[in-house]
């Protein structure tokens, strides 16, 4: 068994205070497996002792007791007993019994008894104390700084620091999403990471990743430019090669014409050009790529700007090309523009910039063209390998981040929550300690004190935390102690409304009524088995699934796995009553009680059936399925049964209101709420439920609709054939 050590540390008052003055007795339970060899903390210094004495008396007036009596009481309270183990989260596992047993009482009928407590924490151990109390999950703090804005609170700088680290984590998440890298499940390995070390590590990763991304963007842009240039050289080279070949043929024709005599049929311009070669005009050229959807407008604007004094040749590129500027793939056209004069050139350059056309140099010499094409192709291959190495390096950084991303994210969320909680505490005038107030279950007193003591020991504080219970007239919050089975049912109730403090909790009854009423509508034991197998799969693998990040729908199903289990069991039960297995009846509990008296009756109607055996022992007789009377019979059965169940549940709610009024000793609610509701409900629908049961027992063919309608329209008239029992008219009038 776990050994427990009880220490009572008495803080002695200064010498100038007499023996009747109040003193402080610090009592806590220290488990040896938490603190194997930690000595008792030394008594505080004289200044701190006076300081804590001032706060305990000023903020929380306590009854004055002599030091000897206080010490004796603390020693009596410190007698060895089995204490409750601290809980991480109440909803994850059941708490130990308050009496020391192995099973919790799970008192879901009423919420736990709460108490308003005050905790005075030294500043050096405040963070660790809040962390321990947060892990415990049994203390709800009040905001003592409600009149201050978030920027005026003591720990605003730490929250801003956490926000900056959260921004870096979001940046990492975006980069991992772009690289299609998934985060690993939360795995805590090695020593826990401190928030300061995490801040340094996040800064290093961000700087490295930013530098790698910048270099990769530059390399990728250069690579895209070279790829675009290479495609342009191939397309434009073919055009210039065909143009040079055509020019050479024309030159040969001109030489042949010069060797012969000129005739009247020779062109005059041709003769002038041959005679005066000095009039030849030198044309400039521009080559580039323009988006295909802008090609027609590009050509039209060029023609109008130069007044037709240019020559444009375009050709479509077969495959989409990654644009160096935007980084997106686009279908483009290669173009060659011939122009004359600097003025035309400046206009063409402005139009190219306006249309996002990328221009590249092009050598006129054929040999230089071939050399340029080979050089660009070599650079493309080299840059492609370099870009792949850079991307692999970036992916390596992101994978190392992904392994610890969830752990860092959880640590940062916890740290931010701690400082938000610390901002709810009030600082004393000397700013040496923090004062907190909050609500805690009565049974958690020893666990809260243990968490505070561990925070004092872990922070090496010379002064311990002071835990006090305050008397108040405020209405406490509602707290239900649940486990993994009951928590989902409690969530269903809380979605509609949370019960007031110490009111009857509908969640206790919902554990049965919710899945059973579902099964009344979903009564099929074949479908119920399918749901049962699904629920058992989620329950058997709950440890593995709890550590994974699930899809939204799967996460909802996993959270309600025990609700689904209960619904499946009740569905199997009601399905056996309805005698439906995927809407097919079976004679599971014996033969049918009816049979046809001749072959002509068949299954067309039940009027030809003759009773040949005893009543079917359980559920609906299978002979009803497939008969003409199946739908009226089953609908009548299920509708009337639903009325009975609904009225029973409504009566349950009214009866619970009586127990609330009795518990709170509110006699007015008993006579002016509970009694009228009970009378009104059961005089109408309760009476209808009684008529349904009598009709089932007697086999009468009375019309219940007629009875209920004329009960109000003609209460004194004779009932006639709709009478179900003697004195029915008198009962209805009454």
From TrEMBL:
GO cellular component: vacuolar proton-transporting V-type ATPase, V0 domain
Role this protein plays: Essential component of the vacuolar proton pump (V-ATPase), a multimeric enzyme that catalyzes the translocation of protons across the membranes. Required for assembly and activity of the V-ATPase.
Subcellular location, record wording: Membrane
Species of the source: Aegilops tauschii subsp. strangulata (Goatgrass)
Superkingdom of the organism of origin: Eukaryota
Membrane topology, as annotated: Multi-pass membrane protein
A GO term for molecular function: ATPase binding
Name of the protein: V-type proton ATPase subunit a
Family, as annotated: Belongs to the V-ATPase 116 kDa subunit family.
InterPro entries assigned: V-ATPase_116kDa_su (IPR002490), V-type_ATPase_116kDa_su_euka (IPR026028)
Residue ranges crossing the lipid bilayer per the database entry: 516-539, 559-578, 641-659, 671-694
Record key words, sorted: Coiled coil, Hydrogen ion transport, Ion transport, Membrane, Transmembrane, Transmembrane helix, Transport
UniProt feature coiled coil, ranges: 195-222
Main location as per UniProt: membrane
Gene Ontology biological process terms in this record: vacuolar acidification
């Amino acid at each position: 068994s776990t050994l427990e050590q009880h220490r009572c540390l008495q803080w002695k008052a200064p010498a100038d205070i007499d023996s009747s003055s109040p003193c402080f007795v610090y009592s806590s339970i220290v488990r040896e497996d938490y603190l194997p060899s930690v000595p008792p903390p030394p008594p505080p210094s004289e200044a701190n002792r006076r300081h804590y004495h001032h706060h305990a008396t000023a903020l929380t007036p306590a009854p004055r007791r002599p030091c000897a009596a206080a010490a004796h009481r603390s020693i009596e309270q410190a007698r060895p007993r089995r204490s409750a183990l601290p809980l991480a989260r109440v909803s994850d596992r059941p708490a130990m019994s308050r009496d020391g047993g192995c099973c919790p009482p799970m008192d879901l009928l009423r919420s736990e008894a709460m108490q308003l407590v005050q905790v005075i924490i030294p500043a050096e151990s405040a963070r660790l104390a809040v962390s321990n109390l947060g892990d415990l999950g049994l203390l709800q703090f009040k905001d003592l700084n409600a009149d201050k804005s978030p920027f005026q609170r003591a720990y605003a700088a730490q929250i801003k620091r956490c926000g900056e680290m959260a921004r870096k984590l979001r940046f990492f998440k975006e980069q991992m999403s772009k690289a299609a890298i998934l985060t690993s499940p939360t795995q805590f390995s090695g020593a826990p990471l401190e928030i300061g070390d995490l801040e340094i590590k996040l800064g290093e990763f961000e700087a490295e990743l930013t530098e790698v991304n910048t270099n990769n963007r530059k390399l990728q842009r250069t690579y895209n430019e070279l790829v675009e240039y290479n495609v342009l050289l191939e397309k434009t080279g073919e055009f210039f090669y065909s143009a040079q070949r055509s020019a050479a043929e024309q030159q040969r024709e001109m030489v042949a014409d010069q060797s012969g005599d000129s005739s009247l049929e020779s062109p005059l311009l041709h003769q002038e050009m041959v005679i005066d070669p000095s009039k030849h005009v030198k044309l400039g050229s521009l080559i580039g790529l323009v988006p295909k959807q802008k090609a027609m407008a590009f050509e039209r604007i060029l023609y109008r700007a130069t007044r037709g004094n240019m020559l444009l040749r375009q050709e479509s590129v077969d495959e989409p090309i990654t644009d160096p500027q935007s980084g997106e793939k686009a279908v483009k056209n290669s173009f060659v523009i011939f122009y004359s004069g600097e003025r035309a050139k400046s206009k063409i350059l402005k139009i190219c910039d306006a249309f996002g056309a990328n221009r590249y140099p092009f050598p006129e010499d054929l040999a230089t063209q071939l050399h340029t094409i080979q050089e660009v192709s070599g650079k493309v291959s080299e840059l492609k390998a370099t870009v792949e190495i850079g991307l692999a390096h970036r992916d390596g950084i992101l994978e190392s981040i992904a392994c610890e991303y969830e752990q860092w994210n959880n640590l940062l969320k916890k740290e931010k929550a701690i400082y938000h909680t610390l901002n709810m505490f009030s600082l004393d005038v000397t700013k040496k300690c923090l004062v907190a107030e909050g609500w805690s279950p009565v049974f958690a007193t020893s666990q809260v004190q243990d968490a505070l003591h561990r925070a004092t020991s872990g922070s090496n504080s010379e002064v311990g935390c002071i835990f006090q219970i305050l008397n108040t007239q405020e209405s406490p919050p509602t707290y239900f102690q649940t486990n993994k089975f009951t928590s989902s049912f409690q969530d269903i109730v809380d979605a509609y409304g949370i019960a007031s403090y110490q009111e009857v909790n509908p969640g206790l009854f919902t554990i049965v009524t919710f899945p059973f009423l579902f099964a009344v509508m979903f009564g099929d034991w074949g479908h119920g088995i399918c749901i049962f197998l699904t629920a058992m799969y989620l329950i058997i693998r709950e440890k593995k699934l709890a550590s994974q990040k699930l899809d939204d729908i799967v996460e909802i199903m996993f959270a309600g796995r025990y609700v689904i289990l209960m619904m499946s069991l009740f569905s199997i039960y009601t399905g056996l009553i309805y005698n439906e297995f995927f809407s097919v009846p079976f004679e599971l509990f014996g033969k049918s009680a009816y049979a046809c008296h001749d072959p002509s009756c068949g299954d067309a109607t039940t009027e030809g059936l003759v009773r040949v055996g005893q009543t079917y022992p359980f559920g609906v007789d299978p002979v009803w399925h497939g008969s003409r009377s199946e739908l009226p019979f089953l609908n009548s059965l299920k509708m009337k049964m639903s009325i009975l169940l609904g009225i029973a549940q409504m009566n349950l709610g009214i009866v619970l209101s009586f127990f609330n009024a009795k518990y709170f000793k509110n006699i007015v609610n008993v006579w002016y709420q509970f009694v009228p509701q009970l009378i009104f409900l059961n005089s109408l629908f309760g009476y209808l439920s009684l008529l349904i049961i009598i009709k089932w027992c007697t086999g009468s063919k009375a019309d219940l609709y007629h009875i209920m309608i004329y009960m109000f329209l003609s209460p004194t008239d004779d009932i006639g054939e709709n009478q179900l029992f003697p004195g029915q008219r008198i009962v209805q009038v009454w």
